[in-house]
């Protein structure tokens, strides 16, 4: 089921035969809109086509969401909390350590 939020554009729904008969058009639409194209067979959803950029963005968002869910779960299980200063200091240290280990490998 496809749901739209207010202000969202209508999804592109095309027959799966368009992949064979109008591939260039489908590819151009995917690149230009960065939105998924829903393909149907006999009026029933069969697959979704999207540009590589849109797919990579979707993967990144999914990974961020998963990490946030993990952090929420961990926060429920422990009372340990870190200040923003502590978090940023740990991040800087991790970047420095990664940079120095890369430099030593070269």
TrEMBL record:
Q: What is this protein called?
A: Antitoxin
Q: Which NCBIfam families match?
A: phd_fam (TIGR01552)
Tell me the first and last residues of the signal peptide. none
One Pfam match: PhdYeFM_antitox
State the source organism's domain of life.
Bacteria
Specify the species: Collinsella stercoris DSM 13279
**Membrane-spanning intervals of the chain:** none
Q: What does this protein do?
A: Antitoxin component of a type II toxin-antitoxin (TA) system.
Query: What family does this chain come from, according to its entry?
Result: Belongs to the phD/YefM antitoxin family.
Q: What Gene3D superfamilies does this protein's entry cite?
A: YefM-like domain (3.40.1620.10)
Which InterPro entries does UniProt cross-reference here?
A: Antitoxin_Phd/YefM, YefM-like_sf
Organism lineage reads as: Bacteria, Bacillati, Actinomycetota, Coriobacteriia, Coriobacteriales
């Amino acid at each position: 089921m496809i749901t739209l939020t207010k202000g969202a554009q209508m999804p592109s729904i095309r027959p799966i035969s368009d992949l064979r008969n109008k591939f260039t058009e489908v590819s151009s639409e995917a690149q230009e809109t960065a939105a998924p194209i829903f393909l149907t067979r006999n009026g029933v959803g069969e697959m979704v086509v999207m540009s590589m950029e849109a797919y990579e963005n979707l993967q990144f968002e999914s990974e961020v969401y998963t990490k946030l869910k993990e952090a929420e779960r961990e926060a429920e299980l422990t009372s340990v909390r870190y200040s923003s200063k502590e978090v940023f200091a740990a991040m800087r240290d991790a970047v420095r350590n990664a940079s120095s280990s890369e430099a030593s490998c070269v």
